[in-house]
Amino acid sequence: MADITILNLNMLFVRYFDTVERERHLPLGPLYVTAALEDAGFEVDFRDYQLHEADELFSSEEIQRFLGDSAPVVGFSCMANLLPFTLLAMRDFKQAHPDTTLLLAGVGPKSVESLILERFPWVDVIVRGEAERSAPLLLHALKHGTGLEQVPGISYRSDGVIRHNDRPPRIEDLDSITPPAFHHIDLRRYSGFGMITSRGCPYPCTFCSVAPIWDLQSFHRSPEAIVEEIRMLHDKAGAELVLFQDEFFLTGRDRVMRFCDALRRSGVSVMWKAFGRVNLTDEDMMHAMADAGCVEIRFGIESGSDRILELTRKGFTTAQAVDVVSRACRIFRRVDAFYVWGYPFETLDDFHQSVFQMVSFRMMGARILPSLLCLLPQTRIYRDHVDPRKLEFAPDLLPEYMVTGHEVSRLAHIEIRPEHAGVFAFVRQHPDIFPGFFHLDLETNIRPKLRVLQEFGFYPASAEELAGMESCGAHSPRVEDESRKELATRATGP
């Protein structure tokens, strides 16, 4: 029997009208941890729920069937959108297998570890941050019955008290990490080939839920290591398009130029996509990226108002955004411009400036991807502006990054299926654990702005409109043109 079963529940599964949009992306985080555990001599049973087929995926019964014959320790990895479902599935699994130790990991429980351990006794341990160092120590302690006091980066109960052990130092040399344990999966079953070229971002954007996970510190892989992984994905999986999923690939001119040179010299012919940053991008860099196979660059613009850019600490101005995006549209096959709307301090004047800029960029040829502000607990905006008692739940409207697959999404409107009503009842009982599903000032802040976005065609109102959209919330659009289907890979959510 394996020492641990690791279950990946990070999924992109969206019901649009009468269709399902589903992409299977490489489960990089859990596979990195799997590799570290195997390096330490443990036997790992890795299972990716993305690959599972069932009439009803989102049921605890289906999770239990999928986890049949699992190890005495089971680790669940999820993001914030599936945290409620994951916790309920863990509850039911624990009832059926009371002697199994259940771990919760991934970014889903970030900043609500204490609340989860206080209210949900079936969660035994929560693993925080980078787990390559802590996971082997944790599994050794569980296997041999020693105390958890010396295991870094975990939260747990001891004698009725919730304890949070300090995290280990960040891993600075990312090239020293064992590559993901790809031997546990069939690479050709995946449609989205993502890669991580760095961990962390130093920019303190107040709405961002990613940078706080890495303590606003950034470390990078070498160009040579990145190219070797691209070569492997190309040769073994037939990958023709790779997405650099990390938010800080474009860290500076030097690093980008060295990577582009290394990829050109490698002879590996692939297309790739990356996230850029307005204040770190220049025209020569963009030309070098395009020459090395970059077909899409993605910018987090977030607002067309200088006031909002300053309040959210974006680090650039609207004038810089206009300059860089207009140049990018002349260089790349596709340019994505991401926006956040619904800030609690965003006036209608601020919002209208954003809409004006969105329309202008759309006319330049950029794809506009607006997303309703997601109030995740690790963000500065949540800490500074959210009183959980004032959060409002709208059963017809969720932020795009919190769509779970339980509901039917019409982008500007969602419908909760009766068979899944219990999941959302669970969410409503715990707004301080699941604030990303909630809103502030629905009637005065959110709904009026949504109506404006609908008027300008940024959210469809019917299946016919959806089919012709250049944008569909936080997700990539359907691409009907056969010659452009390779551009449909997208990043996952929080």
Biggest sheet record:
7 strands, mixed
Mean pLDDT: 91
N/C terminus separation: 33 Å
CATH architecture classification name of the largest domain: Alpha-Beta Horseshoe
* Rg: 22 Å
Q: Number of DSSP helices?
A: 15
The shape is globular
Summing up helix and strand content along with how strands pair, one would put the structural category as alpha/beta
CATH superfamily of the largest domain: tm_1862 like domain
Please tell me the total number of domains.
2
Task: Give the proportion of residues in helices.
Answer: 25-40%
For this structure, what is the CATH class of the largest domain? Alpha Beta
Strand content: 15-25%
Structure description:
With 494 residues, this protein is α/β, with parallel strands linked by helices. It has two domains: 4-164, 3-Layer(aba) Sandwich (Rossmann fold), CATH 3.40.50.10090; 192-488, Alpha-Beta Horseshoe (pyruvate-formate lyase- activating enzyme). The protein contains 15 helices and 19 strands. It has helices at residues 28-39, 60-66, 83-96, 113-119, 134-144, 223-237, 253-266, 283-291, 306-311, 318-331, 348-364, 380-385, 421-429, 442-455, 463-467; strands spanning 4-8, 12-16, 19-23, 44-48, 73-77, 101-105, 125-127, 154-158, 161-164, 194-195, 198-199, 219-220, 241-244, 271-276, 294-302, 334-341, 367-372, 407-409, 414-416. It has a seven-stranded mixed beta sheet with strand order 4-1-5-6-7-8-9, sandwiched between helices. The protein has a six-stranded parallel beta sheet with strand order 10-13-14-15-16-17. It has a four-stranded mixed beta sheet with strand order 3-2-18-19, with no helix packed on it. Strand 16 (334-341), helix 11 (348-364) and strand 17 (367-372) form a beta-alpha-beta unit. Helix 2 crosses helix 3. 45% of the residues are buried.
